[in-house]
């Protein structure tokens, strides 16, 4: 039986697994990967719904074990979306043909896999290969963060922000605590406008010897030459505190996005103009992130380490 080999973006902010499919009314470039054709699949079974834009069914998945070229596991009746008219959101990078939805909930890919633990370790360089593990193979280690069990998102309460060990001063009322969602499908991290203002001011104060700049949607940029002799992990390290006791340190390779063409580094937080806070995958690089999904132990674990294999 012929199988379609493809790659998917691991997205903890989505519950649906989907790929681009023929006939493509509007599909983005997905590199050398072929488009899925449900008409040619013997295992695709459509789920009928009244809305004509609803294109969903179930499909059989085969997962290749990265440690063995001959070992694979089969997963049947996975809820599966077929995208024939697709657009790339601004936070989406690369040429992945679709998304593997890693949100919790009935009928999701994780639910079908029947695992209560998984972990991922994203390398610093997107061109390198990271690690994704399930069940007993998952690495659960490091700082533990209890999650909000009432949400299917991976969500916790952001209670304080520290810059170089000093608690950030927030000028606006009711900004903190704030809900923050951990979303691997977002390449950059988002803060509400008031919270981003406070973070920008705190970092600018720590780097007050240097002239700040704005660039397009980036609120805070610096000339890389000016910062050549600056240890950003000492001068402007940011620490996020959750639930009033769990702290996650973010280092320069998490926080700053380089643009070598114009010789600038920009703070890796943006705002949508709404009260939205997202811990994106730029903050998860060089960090093993483990998840425990039991109802009485819903948590994430953060462990700084080298992730490339």
From TrEMBL:
* Record keywords: Hydrolase, Protease
The GO biological-process annotations, alphabetized, read as: proteolysis
Signal peptide residues are none
Q: Does the keyword Protease apply?
A: yes
**Domain (Peptidase A1) ranges:** 1-301
- Could you tell me one molecular function GO term of this UniProt entry? peptidase activity
User: Does the keyword field hold Electron transport?
Assistant: no
Gene Ontology CC terms, in alphabetical order: extracellular region
Which PANTHER family did the record assign? OS04G0448300 PROTEIN, OS07G0603500 PROTEIN-RELATED
The similarity comment for this entry is:
Belongs to the peptidase A1 family.
Name of the protein in its database record: Protein ASPARTIC PROTEASE IN GUARD CELL 1-like
What organism does this protein naturally occur in? Spinacia oleracea
């Amino acid at each position: 039986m012929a199988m379609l080999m493809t790659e998917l973006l691991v997205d903890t902010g989505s519950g649906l697994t989907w790929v681009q499919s023929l006939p493509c009314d509007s599909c983005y470039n997905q590199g050398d990967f072929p488009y899925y054709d449900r008409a040619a699949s013997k295992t695709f079974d459509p789920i009928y719904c009244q809305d004509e834009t609803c294109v969903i069914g179930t499909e059989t998945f085969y997962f290749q074990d990265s440690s063995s070229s001959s070992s694979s596991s089969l997963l049947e009746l996975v809820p599966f979306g077929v995208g024939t008219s697709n657009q790339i959101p601004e936070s989406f990078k690369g040429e992945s043909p679709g998304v593997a939805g890693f949100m919790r909930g009935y009928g999701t890919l994780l639910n079908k896999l029947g695992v209560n633990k998984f972990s991922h370790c994203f390398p610093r360089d997107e061109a390198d290969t990271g690690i994704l593990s399930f069940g007993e193979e998952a690495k659960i280690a490091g700082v533990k963060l209890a999650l909000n069990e009432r949400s299917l998102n991976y969500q916790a309460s952001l209670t304080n922000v520290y810059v170089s060990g000093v608690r950030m001063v927030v000028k606006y009322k009711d900004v903190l605590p704030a809900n923050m969602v951990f979303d691997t499908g977002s390449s950059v991290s988002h803060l509400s406008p008031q919270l981003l203002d406070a973070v920008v001011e705190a970092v600018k104060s720590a780097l007050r010897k240097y002239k700040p700049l704005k660039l397009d949607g980036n609120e805070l940029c610096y000339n890389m030459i000016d910062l050549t002799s600056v240890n950003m992990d000492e001068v402007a390290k940011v620490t996020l505190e959750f639930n009033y006791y769990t702290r996650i340190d973010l280092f320069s390779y998490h926080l700053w996005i380089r643009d070598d063409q114009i010789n600038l580094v920009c703070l890796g937080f943006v705002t949508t103009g709404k009260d939205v806070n997202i811990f994106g995958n730029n903050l998860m690089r060089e960090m093993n992130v483990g998840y425990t999904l039991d109802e009485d132990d819903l948590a994430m674990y953060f462990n700084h380490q080298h992730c490339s294999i």
